[in-house]
Design goal:
This protein has 309 residues and is mainly α. Helix content is 50%, strand content 2%. The chain has helices at residues 23-29, 31-34, 39-52, 56-93, 98-106, 112-118, 144-166, 172-197, 212-215, 260-272, 284-287, 293-299, and strands spanning 217-219, 238-240. Helix 1 (23-29) packs across helix 6 (112-118) and helix 4 runs antiparallel to helix 8. The longest helix is centred in the N-terminal third of the chain and has 38 residues, at 56-93. It starts with 22 loop residues before the first helix and ends in a 10-residue tail after the last helix. The mean pLDDT is 86.
Length: 309
């Protein structure tokens, strides 16, 4: 009969119950620990936005949700530790034979040997492929309507990842915890959407208005006719089927006005590095080229033409 292991410490937002060890699942859960859609990235994103927001209501909301995301980071980390607990002991105490131990930490077709060997079964600030967490995951630009839309998308992506993780396990305790985390992503998305639409002028982002003649125009940039829908409908856009050569009325070329001395240098550079279209030089690729297959076959004597002695 198995023995339950209880991790002591501060109370978590949700109780973590794991039925048994599963190092492979632990490794996959690192996507929500140190991955681009994970809880640390979300916490840092909302925390830095909250520090910079002058609206007291939004600041409070962002700080609350950032703090909750740190709590979720603790929950995911605890799941990783519990799922790795058996492998951690086996690895540390060397109770298995070498071959059995190797197979146990490299099985299931994923990179869980990284967490077993490099991090001793503990939660690592990496994604499931072992790529370290980076602040580049934090998607903020300091304009509240753009950032709130980014947050809405972040919660949606995280919700989808939790769905996929739930489908990878039959452990009822793990499913329950992941279901809680998935649901909180939905709650946060609702908060961010409410905050966005409580701003009367929430689109377009920023202060400057768009240039009117381009703002509601849809350009068909493909060779064939577009499928028409609300995204390019005549009641929402002026549809331009063939925007050639340039939509501003010019010829689409690029130009710059240079000072006289720089223009002279530019002309001299162009003349010095010009290619002659009238010559066909023999190059190294010509000298080392293999004859085309069809030419080689043409040189072979047909079998039916061979004479007999």
């Amino acid at each position: 009969m198995g023995v339950s292991y209880v991790q002591t410490g501060a109370e978590r937002q949700h109780t973590v119950r794991v039925a048994g060890p599963n190092p492979g699942l632990a490794n996959l859960l690192l996507e929500q620990f140190g991955g681009p859609q994970g809880e640390l990235a979300a916490a840092c994103q909302y925390f830095t936005q909250g520090l910079g927001d002058n609206d007291p209501g939004r600041k409070d909301m962002l700080m609350d949700i950032a703090t909750e995301e740190l709590s979720h980071l603790e929950i995911i980390g605890s799941l990783v530790v519990m799922l790795n607990k058996g492998a951690k002991g086996d690895l540390a105490e060397c109770t298995d034979k070498e071959g059995d131990l190797y197979r146990s930490i490299t099985g299931n077709g994923n990179d869980r040997h990284l967490t077993s060997l490099l991090y001793g079964g503990g939660p690592a600030l990496t994604n499931s492929a072992g790529i370290p967490w980076t602040a580049a995951y934090v998607d903020s630009i300091g304009e509240v309507t753009a950032d709130l839309r980014s947050n809405i998308a972040a919660e949606a992506r995280a919700k989808i990842l939790y769905e996929r993780l739930i489908n990878l396990t039959d452990d009822p305790g793990v499913k329950e915890t992941l279901g809680f985390l998935m649901t909180r992503e939905v709650a946060h998305q609702i908060s961010f959407e409410k905050a966005l639409y409580s701003i009367s002028n929430n689109f377009p982002p920023g202060k400057l208005p768009p240039i009117e003649k381009y703002a509601t125009v849809y350009y068909n940039m493909s060779d064939s006719d577009n499928v028409r829908g609300s995204w390019n409908a005549d009641e929402n856009f002026t549809y331009v089927s063939d925007p050639q050569p340039a939509v501003d009325g010019g010829d689409g070329s690029a130009s710059v006005t240079l000072p006289a001395d720089q223009q002279a240098n530019s002309d001299q550079l162009l003349q010095r590095t010009a290619s002659d279209p009238d010559i066909n030089p023999v190059t190294g690729t010509d000298l080392g080229a293999v004859p085309p297959i069809e030419n080689t076959l043409a040189k072979k004597e047909p079998a039916g033409d061979k004479g007999t002695d």
